[in-house]
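[#protein-structures] MJ: dropping Cytochrome c oxidase assembly protein CtaG here for a structure pass
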Amino acid sequence: MADQQEKDQKLKKQQRSNATIAFACLSFFVCMIGAAYASVPLYRIFCQVTGYGGTTQRVEQYSDTILDRTIKVRFDANTANGLPWDFKPVQREVTVRIGETTMIKYEARNLFDQPTYGRASFNVAPGRAGAYFNKVECFCFTDTTLKPGEDMEMPVVFFVDPEIVNDPDLKDVKTITLSYTFFPIEKPKPVANAKAETSTNGS
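AK: finished. structure tokens for Cytochrome c oxidase assembly protein CtaG:
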């Protein structure tokens, strides 16, 4: 009888141990998923602050310093699969003085017989130069709608931060490439409908 009780106690202890391990594994898995989701916006913020990965800087003021040194800026355009747009820069490249504010334009045309919707992402090469490529005006990360056959011009206003000349890793850089890629998105919901859905979900 004593042996059976001892076996039962060992079995219960083993079951509790297994349950603890399973709970720990599940908690770790959930935490990893949460960290993965959180890392996306955190990584984006990190890139925006540091320019890491070719992420450009968004500013609201022009540079008050313009150098005699010039740099060439090339413009690249791409569309992801599923978006029937003809998207390209109006100018393929410009040569600007460092610190000089410049406006260039991209243009997009919907080749489909129905409205289509896109959103652009961007990067700069070489990647380290993104910290010094300042955009005052940009169409990136905003939803864009094009009607059938519609053409649209998309301006970009930028300047290259004069501090770039003090970066030893970029002292020999003569050309910077700004690249945009448009991705298809779902049809944006009307503001009134979105507010109504929010109110309904919150009630």
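MJ: nice. Residues 29-54 have pLDDT under 50 and may be disordered.
AK: one more thing. Residues 1-49 form one domain.
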